[in-house]
Design brief:
This protein is about 10% helix and about 35% strand. β28 and β29 form a beta hairpin. It folds into 3 domains: about 100 residues, Immunoglobulin-like (Sandwich); about 110 residues, Immunoglobulin-like, CATH 2.60.40; about 150 residues, L,D-transpeptidase catalytic domain-like. A 5-stranded antiparallel beta sheet has the order 10-9-12-15-14. Strands 21-20-19-31-24 form a 5-stranded mixed beta sheet, with no helix packed on it. The chain has a 4-stranded antiparallel beta sheet with strand order 1-2-5-4, with no helix packed on it. The protein contains 4 helices and 31 strands.
């Protein structure tokens, strides 16, 4: 039964009274003169009258003692009813919707015992008001995590808190990732707001993934409470792994382990430039990248990473069929003017130049989370903040968990 208010029928009341009388009458024990049976337990309400700063997830319940409940009404401070449900025997009631922060609730209950009606009994209590709240947004390293979407075998789950988390360990305990089939995986904290999760190895194609943050009404340290729970689910698509090898100047694209396309490329020219005290390098850094996003066209502006447009190597161009693989602007993209160099010479500032035909094909083929492995190039290895999660050795990745 689900209702805010209910009444017992006259027949139901009569049955209860008769049952209690019969039980009393069948007793074989003799009573001493002047003795009395104990009175039935009265209705009880939890939380008690006047309780303050109650956790919204703490138990809220009405119990009828030795009788049955005939009416329970629960409202907030604005008089809005709170839905609830009775046990089948009508001896207990509880709300069926979650309570909120900073509200005042009133419960009024009535019941029936062998001695007659009990109540009404009233309890008014208030829930806690957090000093601050935070919400978790589930993302990939490239942006939003589309619930129900399909992602590549290198997809990294990002739990992005919108406030600094004082207690990472407690927060991590409230985060969960479940996969079908089951996979070994771990969280890795980049800072006080972002925790990344990935499995030990690339996901098998077809894996189902469910992520959840159960943080509502949880104190994550220093009075920062979870604003609400969050969850998302997604599926891993076909295995797309591309290998760019600077020894051959080729990008080999594999689908489910089969080579399906080879694309000549021109990668970073190497070297560096000192601009305003900042060293800017022109390598395509070696490492394991994943597809983050796509744009057609995209405006590429060297001033965004500190190289003025009017400098010797500066530029601002509109580029077609651009697939981004790093946070600092490495793309696989079309550049017809370097087709002569693709397959033999590195001429770019760090991106992987492709012919218009190959760039468009890759753009259409790639999905967020697809893997791009870059090998045998110069420069420093790709770092985790640049979208280099898969380049972190597993034993180091596990060390990045707050629970290790």
């Amino acid at each position: 039964m689900s209702s805010r208010r209910f009444r017992s029928s006259a027949a139901g009341i009569a049955v209860l009274v008769m049952a209690l009388v019969v039980v009393a009458g069948c007793s074989s024990e003799s009573k001493k003169p002047g003795s009395h049976d104990p009175l039935p337990a009265p209705i009880s309400i939890t939380p008690a009258q006047g309780a303050k700063s109650i956790d919204p997830l703490s138990p809220v319940q009405v119990n009828a003692g030795d009788g049955m409940l005939t009416s329970v009404v629960m409202t907030n401070e604005q008089g809005k009813p709170i839905e609830g449900i009775l046990t089948p025997d009508k001896t207990a009631w509880k709300p069926t919707e979650p309570l909120g922060y900073g509200h005042t609730y009133t419960i009024t209950a009535e019941g029936l015992t062998i001695t007659g009606r009990s109540g009404p009994l009233t309890s008014t209590f208030s829930t806690l008001t957090p000093n601050n709240q935070t919400k978790v947004y589930f993302e990939t390293t490239g942006g939003g995590l589309l619930d129900g979407g399909t992602f590549g075998v290198g997809a990294v789950v990002v739990a992005h808190f919108d406030e600094d988390v004082p207690d990472r360990a407690l927060a991590e305990k409230r985060l969960s990732v479940t996969t079908t089939p089951p996979l070994e995986g771990s969280w890795y904290w980049l800072d006080n707001r972002r925790a990344h999760w990935r499995p030990k190895e690339y996901y098998p194609a077809g894996t189902k993934v469910n992520v959840k943050a159960s943080i509502y009404a949880v104190d994550l340290g220093k009075g920062l409470y979870g604003q609400e729970d969050s969850k998302a689910s997604f599926t891993i698509g076909a295995s797309h792994v591309s290998v760019a090898d600077d020894n051959t100047h080729q990008v080999q694209v594999f689908e489910n382990g089969n080579l399906i396309r080879t694309m000549p490329t021109s990668m970073g020219m190497g070297g560096s430039e000192n601009v305003g005290g900042k060293t800017i390098t022109f390598w395509t850094q070696p490492g394991v990248y994943t597809v983050m996003s796509k744009a057609n066209p995209v405006i590429m502006d060297s001033s965004t990473f500190g190289l003025p447009i009017n400098s010797r190597l500066g530029y601002k161009e509109t580029i077609n069929w651009a697939t981004r693989i790093s946070t600092d602007g490495i793309y696989l993209h079309e550049l017809a003017s370097t087709v002569w160099a693709q397959g033999n010479t590195n001429t770019s500032h760090g991106c992987l130049n492709l012919s218009p035909e190959n760039a468009r094909w890759f753009y259409d083929f790639a999905v967020t989370g697809d893997v791009v492995e870059i090998k045998h190039t110069g420069g420093a290895p790709l770092e985790v903040w640049q979208n280099g999660d898969w380049g972190v050795p597993w034993n180091e990745w596990v060390q990045g968990s707050a629970l290790h």
